Amino acid sequence: MKQALMDDTEDVSLDFGNEEELAFRKAKVRHPLATFFHLFFRVSAIVTYVCCDWFSRSFVGCFVTVLLLLSFDFWSVKNVTGRLMVGLRWWNQIDEDGKSHWIFEARKVSPSGTAATEAEARIFWLGLIICPMIWTVFFFSTLFSLKLKWLALVIAGISLQAANLYGYILCKMGGESDISKVTASFLSQTVFQTAYLQRQQGLQPEVLYSNELPGEKNSMTHKPLVFQ
User: Fold this and answer.
1) Torsion region of 78: left, alpha or beta (phi above 0 gives left; psi -120 to 50 gives alpha)
2) Of these four, 130, 131, 186, 189, which has the most CB atoms within 10 Å of its CB?
3) Burial tier of 35 (Cβ tally within 10 Å: 0-12, 13-18, 19+)
4) How far apart are CA 178 and CA 29, in angstroms?
5) Rounded to a whole number, what is the largest CA-CA distance in the chain?
């Protein structure tokens, strides 16, 4: 009887701790400064791009300002906010043979460690996904309005922010996919479908494709990220 009461007390205390931790993760923002700068540079770049004609007539000044904001955003998201807010990091390493390796890391959540809060994770991923979509809208609006002088800046915005989005998606998925292998698989499937359709139409494909890509040097690895 006494042993049963002790077991019940232990279960209650454990459940209470889990509920407290869950409430903490939902409500608490543990890194307010990192959360602020995660959104500050990318939102500032968008606002400056939209409103630059109202504040300045200098195309060069607006171009350089937006490009600097995009560069600051790329660096801070890649090296700081992703590590602090969601425990993810991606980077490139060149080994002794001169081969380039893309490394995608995810932090192990230990029992004594503090997991990322849901509020921070939600802010991180929403900012990471929505802003490249906005720059994509800018791309089509710039293209259709024939404002070609802004096209290079919009492409830079899409490229820098899409690179971070792609890198963190691979971190989240485990970093097991090799870019060259994924590309080769996609191309082989596309060519196979094209050849099949041509055969159905009585046409013969003129070019043979291989599933292998020559000169394949890049590789991706995934390993747990351990913070001091």
Assistant:
1) alpha
2) 131
3) buried
4) 34
5) 83
**Residue 55 and residue 44: Cα distance in Å, rounded?**
14
In the chain, the amino acid numbered 80 is: V
Q: How would you class 226 by CB atoms within 10 Å of its CB: exposed for 0-12, middle for 13-18, buried for 19 or more? A: exposed
Residue 84 CA to residue 173 CA, distance in Å, equals 18
Rounded Cα distance between 20 and 133, Å, is 36
- Tell me the pLDDT tens digit for each residue of 202-215: 544 444 444 444 44
Rg (CA), the chain: 24
Segments making up each domain of the chain, as ranges = 7-178
Q: How far lies 194's CA from each of 47, 184, 189, 203, 213, in Å?
A: 44, 15, 9, 10, 19
